[in-house]
Amino acid sequence: MPGGHRGSTAQVTGPAPLSWLAWLCATVTIAYVVGAPLWVADYPMMTDFPFHAASSSVFRHYLDPGWHFDEQFQFQVLAAPYLTFYGLAAIFMLVLSPVAATKLAAAVLMALLPIGLMVLCWGLRKSPFLGLWGLLAVWGAPAHWGLVGFLASLGLFAMALGLALRVADRPSAKLQALLVAVLILLFFTHVYRFPFAVLMLGVVAAAMHGRVDSIRGLLIPIAVSSALFVAWATTRANLSIPEIAWAWPPAWSRLSEAGAYATDIFIGDEDRFVFRRTALFFAVTAVALLAIAVARLRSWPKDGWVVPAHAVLGVAILVFLGLFLTLPMELGVWWYVFPREITAAAFLVPALLPNLPRKTWAELGFVVWTAVAIAPLGEFVAGAHKEFSTTTVHFREIVRELPKAPKLLYLVYDHEGSRARNSPYIHLPAYVQTERGGWLSFHFAQLEGFPFRYRDSADPEAVVPPQTPVRWEWSPQLFQLEEHGDFFDWFLVRRLDSPDALFVTDPSIQRVAHFENWWLYHRPRPSTGPSGKTP
């Protein structure tokens, strides 16, 4: 692979202030592109984000009796170890509001995309600044579905791969410990990506065997991660494992829609234009670096390390591309399965770029160029999120009418109002549980692969909402008051026309508030306990 060999004697040369300035510019670029869309809106325009916030509140307030979470949920943190996002947000909630804390946690995790790719480039003996192009993957389709844990796992996967290459190249106890820590963090962030990281450790060991002094530095990380995977698999055996309906032969037609699966986030073509413009900058960058590398043929690495190292990266890209072509769209309760893998494959491609010239001015120039290329994408997405915020004003007004810890059933009929292709309103009422506690008619906790689940309804101390059918939240027309509404005291509906007819069979249910297309109803019930214990 053309590029620079950055061995112990291959240091970047030039004034130190320029190097510090390059790192400062890189940090500001990451903070802006990742953070701007999250902070310009009261609620991010991300489909599943409200439930991430609500789940974080469960972690934060589980032992607070006024929130009533311990009556509903019990944890299964090893069987479904998706803990990093919720644990981090719960910690931030100690000093921030629930929504702000969840946004900050999401920003930290999404920033792992460029940071992880920077570590991978460093592991490949290149300038880490090449990894700034990992920002391209931050605000694609997975982010707008709210798949924050998945995106963070890609950054951690790249980080683990870069550290594994570095451990094979120059083993040390510190690097081993750091690699083990990253693998454990990956396990608790998104366990689905974890076995691929373990697999790639084996690929690195096989590719580097005989080309480095020793691969023993990888043995401890492989042993620890394998033991962790076995422990998870044993615990997971108590849960049902969905059968995978593989697409075979591979669905090659998906390649023609790969760009849409990764970047088609808004209604219309403006989003595709912005992504294509940014991709054009990337192509120009790649051509320029390749031309520089060809002009500097004598500086190409002469050892046998670089080619197999890049071959390892190629294996990872091909694995994810193969999953994109063969996985189904739906796996058990999980949706949008195979489209995620095109983002995973494309995310790693910038690590194949030829290296930068070993000059501080070159690195600073590259960072500025990359910022100019990618910042407009962040600005474009932030504008759409800010616009979405204006459509949630009436939601924020109507939920002020709700008490602490309500038993809330919600129905979303109307999904119009934003530029998002995937409805950002479908789970919006989960913010009520985020900020007030209580119960919801639908919750991710009824999905098996979640770090907590509903308690057994036969438990005399459990207060659990009735189970809802699969895709209930997307099918409000299935609602029948007599069948689904008895448990609940509050009913929140998003609909253009009046939903009064839904509650006509129970005269005790009265409309409390109506703001534009949000309607709130209440069924008064006599208290059965002290105030704060029963809503």
Classify the helix fraction into a percent range: 40-55%
Instruction: State Rg.
Output: 25 Å
Our count of domains comes out at: 2
Low-confidence stretches: 1-9, 527-535
The span between the termini is 65 Å
Give me the secondary-structure category.
alpha/beta
Q: Report the biggest beta sheet as strand number plus sense, adding barrel if it closes.
A: 5 strands, mixed
How many DSSP E strands? 9
Shape: globular
Provide the residue-averaged pLDDT: 90
Note the beta-strand portion. Answer: 5-15%
Number of helices: 18
Strand order across the largest sheet: 5-4-7-9-8
Order of helices and strands: HHEHHHHHHHHHHHEEHHHEHEEHEEE
Structure commentary:
The structure is a single chain. The protein has 535 residues and is of the alpha/beta class. It folds into two domains: 47-110 and 393-535, no CATH class; 112-387, no CATH class. It has 18 helices and nine strands. The chain has a five-stranded mixed sheet with strand order 5-4-7-9-8. Strands 1-6 form a two-stranded antiparallel sheet. A two-stranded antiparallel sheet has the order 2-3. Mean pLDDT is 90; it is low at 1-9 and 527-535.
